[in-house]
Amino acid sequence: MIRKYTYGHPFLTDAVVRKIQEETGKPVYLEETEETDQLLFTYRMKETDLVYGLGESVRGINKRGWIYESYCTDESHHHENTSALYAAHNFLIIKGAQTFGIFIDYPGKVTFDIGYTYMDQLQIIVEDKNLDLYVIEAQSLREIVREFRELIGRSYIPPKWAFGYQQSRWGYKNETDIRKIAAEHRENHLPLDSIYLDIDYMERYKDFTIDKERFQDFSSLVKEMKEQHIHLVPIIDAGVKIEPGYFMYEEGVKNGYFCKDANGEEFVAGVWPGKVHFPDFLSSEVRQWFGNQYAILLDMGIEGFWNDMNEPAIFYAQDRLEQVLEKAGRFQGENLDIDKFFGFQSMVGNLCNNREDHKKFYHETEIGKVRHDKIHNLYGYNMTRAAGAAFDRLRPDKRILMFSRSSYIGMHRYGGIWTGDNKSWWQHMLLNLKMMPSLNMVGILYTGADIGGFSQNTTEDLLMRWIQAAMFFPLMRNHSEMHSREQEICRFMHVKEFRNFLEIRYGMIPYIYSEYMKAALSNDMYVQPLAFVYPEDKFVQQVEDQLMVGESLMIAPICEQNATGRYVYLPEEMAMIRFRSLHDYDVEILFKGHHYVQAGLYEMLVFLRPDKILLLGEGGEAVQEIKTEKIKAIAYVKEGASYNWYDDDGESKDYENPENYSRLTVDIDGSWAYQGKELKTFVIEKL
Ligand code: GLC
User: Fold this and answer.
1) Cβ proximity of 144 and 138 under 8 Å
2) Within the chain, which residues score under 70 in pLDDT?
3) Alpha-carbon distance 88 to 310, whole Å?
4) Is the separation of the CB atoms in 634 and 683 below 8 Å?
5) What is the model's pLDDT at position 678?
6) What's the CA dihedral at 514, 518, 520, 521 to 10 degrees?
7) Which of 149, 217, 338, 424 could potentially form a cystine with 523 if both were Cys, beta carbons 3.0 to 4.6 Å apart?
């Protein structure tokens, strides 16, 4: 059951797709306090209450004990003390004496103080009095999520190739670099489905242009790569370079498509190309215009994009820069003592992503002019919506890969996200793991972190463990920045072992894809905390580094350097499969309870639930080469196992076709039956 409470005149975010009748009166569960210019919702938590949610955010699966801010922020240096990340996902579930979900549909800043100020209090502070509050009740945690997801609409579905391994680096500068990366993977038989184009493919960082010197024949390169079953995926940035003669700039200015300052002049900020204007993505006309530009690259054969810097990230606001430069001159010849030096440092430091600058520009909306900070969290969402809606117009029958850095609830209908700039830290690998179920709760299923870490220097073992940890994560992209140690697999000693794990990934894709699609099509979670699947088990509530993936598996990655094993908790008897390669694995049946399990650096553990099935295809070097006519089904049969297998062509949008589903059952004696459109042969491995 969903209850909606409306305060004042909320800005229409389009997060929600279902109409709910408003309640009159005060909200259930929450105490509401009105302050001068904000609303405060309070809930007294019992000591044993758990809090889930908040999508992309720091810390644990259980969010208790910290203060989080929903205010999309370019925060590449995040750690456990950070409050705001790139996205804003205002959804929480409280589990305890009373169990319910909350969604605060407000596009400006919201603070979630979950036992930070007072350990027993949840305080939600909304910086405005115009918002929609939804309270969701259901039989179970999973049902609360389903109800919520029905409210916000179906999750984005990428093409199947986007489940393959993807290679990226900010630093691939030209055709030669791209060909080299492709060749290194293909020559070493390392499965690969795409290579990313970071900002250097553009002409001086101008969206929808191509640097002709570095990429002399872009369309031919796209084609050449596709012949090797590799997709090129270009980046698109939010800011449009100010440059007379540049079509985006000219058209944008002529039609008034950019955000304006209080005087009605285009707001000027600095990002990669230097001075830029920000398209006013809150206007449907601007979205249509910007979205149509993706056709330039689609027409050259491109089938996927990533949208970046769309919080929006601001290196400097032009007016602030001028003031700082002017003030900086005054320091000339000064003896910079403690106060002056720190004053100088903070003056320069405050140039970048200064929230005060969000108060300097406006959006034209259906309700008139709105100041950016009031709707800040909708900016990246609407950039990606512009792209998603354009793909539906430009390529109605084809799936296009799209994921964004910034997001708000609702954006999950148009694309996935990656979790922004992380570091080559074991801690960030663990954070990647913990964020996955929270992201699934808010509908973001196509997601992953920069594997190996974006900035700072990775190590071979970190990359190896991260690939194992991200084995089942839909977006599996190795991405790093130019100042860090190169981290393509070929830079390291154990290429063969890396290959083994990529082959396992491709072998798992029939299962991964099937589970992803079923979750997306039924508003369910693909990755879940253990507590969602075993609600009666009192131990699982504490488990933060193991996850359920789809209906058959539990994973327990090793997230610690030099560890050759780990403790693991099994909420029921399971078959532990220790993979060394797709064909080399051993199996142990482990009873319910606590275990210490071994897994050396070149071993990966997967736990198979009783009477469930894991499908294993025979991987090629690209997703389209995976063979599923003859497929292995591993089952730990106690009473009889079954599996509902979803599969389709991975490109078109005929999702609802019942023929996409088939059913495999395995009996206690190992005999099997299959019902499906196509003939398949199964090699059953009964554990
Ligand atoms: C941002 C992105 C990162 C990208 C870089 C250069 O930092 O988060 O992924 O490589 O910009 O475009």
Assistant:
1) yes
2) none
3) 13
4) no
5) 82
6) 130
7) 149
C-alpha to C-alpha distances, 394 to 223, 248, 526, nearest whole angstrom: 20, 19, 29
Out of 206, 315, 481, mutate this one to test ligand 1's pocket (max ligand atoms within 8 Å of CB): namely 481
Angle at 441 (CA atoms; ends 577, 97), nearest 5 degrees: 100
Q: How many Å lie between the centroid of ligand 1 and the Cα of residue 169?
A: 9
Q: Are 249 and 241 a contacting pair, CB within 8 Å?
A: yes
Task: State in Å: Cα 302 to ligand 1 middle.
Answer: 20
Helix (H/G/I), strand (E/B), else coil: 358: helix
Beta strands in 127-258 (DSSP E): 131-136, 165-167, 194-197, 231-237, 240-241
89 Cβ contact list (under 8 Å, min separation 6): 53, 54, 55, 56, 57, 70, 407, 408, 409, 438, 439, 442, 444
Read off the pLDDT of residues 35-67 as tens digits, 9 standing for 90 and up: 989 999 999 999 999 999 999 999 999 999 999
H/E stretch holding 340: helix 338-349
Q: Tell me, what amino acid is at 256?
A: G
Closest CA to 511 of 664, 677, 667, 622: 664
Residue 27, pLDDT score: 97
Burial of 659 (0-12, 13-18, 19+ CB in 10 A): exposed
Give me 378's structure tokens: 């909708």
Say how far apart CA 223 and CA 598 lie, in whole Å. Answer: 45
pTM value is 0.98
DSSP 67-79: EEEES----TT--
Tell me how far the alpha carbon of residue 307 lies from the centroid of ligand 1, in angstroms. 10
Cα 373 to ligand 1 centroid, rounded to whole Å: 23
pLDDT, one tens digit per residue, over 111-132 is 999 999 999 999 999 999 999 9
Question: What pLDDT does 630 receive?
Answer: 87
CA distances from 64 to 30, 50, 93, 430 (A): 17, 7, 11, 17
Query: ∠ at Cα 473 (418, 376), nearest 5°?
Result: 25
Could you tell which of 172, 196, 198 is best to mutate to test the pocket of ligand 1, judged by most ligand atoms within 8 Å of the CB?
Answer: 198
Is the CB of 308 inside a 6 Å radius of any atom of ligand 1? Answer: yes
Q: Is 421 in the pocket of ligand 1 (CB under 6 A)?
A: yes
Closest CA to 601 of 486, 477, 459: 459
> Hey, how many other C-beta atoms are within 10 angstroms of the C-beta on 337?
9
Nearest CA to ligand 1 atom 3: 421
